[in-house]
Design goal:
Strand content: under 5%
Largest sheet: none
Structural class: mainly alpha
Helix content: 55-70%
Shape: elongated
Order of helices and strands: HHHHHH
């Protein structure tokens, strides 16, 4: 009975056809998430480079050093994964084939940026972390240009 009543309502009041081209409503994508995560990668890389191990024989200092070192590494790796995830969302969900006409190096730029995310997870390399920031900035500029807007590249540090 309920089914036939609903069918009668649908026949009388048909819903209009909806079309969508992405996973979410347009306008929800933003490369800022990738930038924030990439900045954390660079920040943790710098902190790791300048972290000094304590002198031998000081167990408490060594424990504190190991704790700090492992926390920095965990954050660096987690944020590198987050950067990669955010870039891949832009690549697979936001950028469309028609963007390739404007940005013929789009695929290569994002592919190389995600490879830098992996390199930043594996190594403590400030140069790679800075390359990652530069790649994210390039993607940021492509993104905003594709929207016909200009959004300033701003970093926290």
């Amino acid at each position: 009975m309920l089914r036939s009543a609903l069918s009668a309502i649908v026949r009388v009041l048909p819903a209009s056809v909806a079309h969508a081209h992405c996973d979410g409503p347009c306008g929800v994508y933003d490369p800022a998430s990738a930038r924030v995560a990439a900045e954390a990668v660079l920040s943790m890389t710098k902190k790791l480079k300048f972290l000094e191990a304590p002198a031998n024989g000081d167990a408490a200092a060594m424990a504190a050093y190991n704790n700090t070192f492992s926390r920095y590494v965990a954050i660096k790796e987690d944020q590198a994964k987050e950067t990669k995830k955010e870039l891949l969302i832009l690549w697979t969900d936001y950028f469309k084939p028609d963007h390739l006409a404007t940005f013929p190096d789009l695929h290569d730029t994002i592919w190389k940026a995600t490879k830098l995310c992996s390199a930043c997870k594996v190594h403590i390399d400030q140069g790679k972390a800075e390359e990652l920031m530069a790649a994210v900035e390039k993607i940021h500029n492509m993104f905003w240009q594709s929207k016909g807007r200009s959004d300033a590249w701003v970093t926290a540090s």
